[in-house]
Design a protein that fits this description.
The protein is an all-beta fold and about 210 residues long. About 0% of the residues lie in helices and about 35% in strands.
């Protein structure tokens, strides 16, 4: 059973998985989906059409608008804001009525893939993919896709290293570029990786135990 704080506002059409904890003053709008064994931190906003996988951790005051999908195992740091409108306007061109903020030609989707982590206070642009097991450093402004296993920082965010599933850097970029071709093991946990022009391949990914 999900645990939902009495101050949370959960609208009709929101599906919340077993074991998920929803903390104080969360607002979740339907239709949206939150998977099993997640944590939804206080004052987080989940917009209509948002899909959140299993084992996802949202810290306090995360903003997830229409068009955002978080795969399994994602972590989003406190105060992170996702956006979904590349050319935002409040009204039509004649300033006669408010522009609809629902689905339409101005709304773009963003996907955060399995295991990725986004640090506190980040701003995430629209129409992007944040790759598997990547890391986005705190306060970063992400304006383009983040490759799998890359660590990005800054405004605009740029890659500075390749990281392991455990978060430890495997390769650092002393000259701002990933190695053209190399193999290495994580110094912390020993998982091995291969990189080819910035594209990372896992040589011995962990496997789930047989059921």
């Amino acid at each position: 059973m999900a645990r939902i704080h009495p101050t949370a506002e959960i609208e009709d059409g929101v599906e919340i998985g077993e074991g998920t904890a929803v903390w104080a003053h969360v607002h979740a709008r339907g239709p949206s989906t939150v998977g099993r064994d997640c944590i939804v931190g206080e004052k987080t906003y989940i917009g209509p059409g948002v899909t959140i996988g299993d084992l996802v951790k949202l810290n306090a005051m995360v903003y997830l608008p229409l068009g955002v999908t978080l795969e399994d195992g994602v972590m989003i740091g406190a105060g992170t804001i996702f956006t979904n409108d590349r050319y935002p306007r409040g009204t039509d061109v004649a300033v006669t009525e408010l522009r609809d903020s629902g689905p339409g030609e101005h709304i773009f989707e963003t996907l955060v893939q399995q295991g990725a982590s986004i640090g506190a206070g980040c701003t995430i642009g629209s129409n992007l993919t944040i790759g598997r097991w990547s890391l986005v450093g705190m306060g970063a402004v992400v304006t383009r896709d983040v490759p799998a296993f890359h660590l990005v920082v800054g405004n605009p965010a740029r890659s500075i290293s390749i990281v392991c599933r455990c978060g430890e850097p495997v390769w650092r970029f002393p000259h701002g570029e990933a190695p053209a071709s190399d193999e290495a093991a994580c110094p912390a946990c020993g998982l091995r990786y291969k990189v080819d022009n910035g594209v990372v391949e896992e040589l011995d990914p962990p496997r789930a135990p047989a059921s």
